Amino acid sequence: MEQTSLMTEKIRDFFSSRFADAVISEDNFRDQQSFYVKPEAIFDICQTLLNDAELDLKYLSDITSLDWLGDEEAEKGRFEVVYNLYSLTHHNRLFLKVRLQEDNPRIRTVSDLWAGANCMEREVWDLMGIDFEGHPDMTKVLTADELDGHPLRKDFPLTWEQPKFTWNKDDPPEVIK
Amino acid sequence: MTEQKTVTVNMGPQHPSTHGVLRVVLELDGETVIKATPVVGYLHTGIEKTMENKLYYKAIPCTDRMDYLAPMSNNLGYCLAVEKLMGIEVPEKVKWARVLLTELTRIKSHLVWLGTHALDLGAMSMLLYTFRERESIIDVYEAVSGQRMMSTYIRIGGLAKELPKDFDKWVRKVLKQVPQGMQDYIDLLSGNQIFINRTKGVAVISAEDALNYSLSGPMLRGSGIKHDLRKASPYSGYENFDFEIPVGRIGDAWDRYLLRLEEMRQSLRIVQQALDGMPEGPYRAHVPGVVLPPKEDVLYKMESMIHHFKIITEGFETPRGAVYQAIEAPKGELGYYISSDGSNKPHRVRVRPPSYINLGALPKMVEGRLLSDVICAIGTIDIVLGEVDR
Asked: B4-15 burial string, b = 16+ CB within 10 Å, else e?
């Protein structure tokens, strides 16, 4: 536990000394350290962390995304991308959070730093519609090829089925082949 | 006449060795794989979206259905995340029972892996033997929850009900039967020249690549990296148990076979310790308004009935914020990222699926190798398509 709080301090120092203007705010909800950073700085931060032997936050655990539509948080940007980094030596976690604007959300890819980011970013694009610039293969991965839209967005209807997936139940039976 | 050198072959989705509905598009030059592209999503049911629209309690059954070979691990990850969000501390007995049950789940999941992996590589009879031992673990599931597969036994703040009176008997049966069965597997496979030839030096992934691809679980440890969340970031009281973390040497399918066998032995050790030292106490935390009161109280106490009714119909208010809780599931790091906007339903539930991310390394493992190695590589990753597609 003491070691974790030591690392928390060190990570804070790292950001204040090297990326002071990129950091928007810090959050420590339930002892989980997370930093809101500017989207244009994410690649530099990740690259610097990857080469930082002391912090050793080199294991990319996860990339995920949130949609704040209809919430007061949406003022800071509707979409949020969360990078979840883990240290295999110090066993602490760091969350890097980025807010993106509603129209045309896009961010620089980190798949050239971690090969594992490839499939995580593809999933975020498929389900949330956030474009990762420079990603080698930004195609659908989970949803059907014909599906329009991105299901995890809050304005994606929960129960309504797109016409091409309803098997045309309302059409006369001879349409169904 | 123009010469076409490579040919594209579709492996799956209806292929017995793809463990569900996985399609791999293979570009072949003769029998050598030039390029492999896994295509997933055939089982996508939008579980994350579904969970956003359910009360915290009612989202638990969704978690069983992701990795259906390890339902208890999925329950545990989700419940620990919600408990972290709400700041609930569970009784000691609950922790021990959870550890016991998730370790049984690990053995159960590894047994299915072993059976199907050997089946893919031509050892047909293995599946019958591993399912024989798996049956004894399913009996424990049935004894505690009444369900054989989708148990939903671990709940927020505790367990669904008290452990049954004959719980000891069922677990001791597992402890007796599984080691005997494991001796059979070793006799059948460890000296089997066909199995050795098909796995040794196949589907190799180096330690550096394993980290770069964010692999976890046996896939990471097989490459020689000693990382296990049960030791690194203990949860649910794992720091009280004595067990070893096995690691592989070169990261091939053979290493991972030996490693998973050893993990099963270590899990048996943990189960033995948990069974012997199981403390007495309540099976649910006492947090009125958040954790469901015990069913016996609901029938006889007014306040308990009111709480029960309110939790079931309205749920409970949560603090704003996001938590992440990762556990060491049989397949790797299973994490739940729960973001709350203060209402009674989660704003977003993200599941970090270990087999989906491990599957990302499949092209790296098979490119430049033979077509038959693809079968071995898919088997050794230990994928469950229910979790990959969610």
From this structure: eeeeeeebbbeb
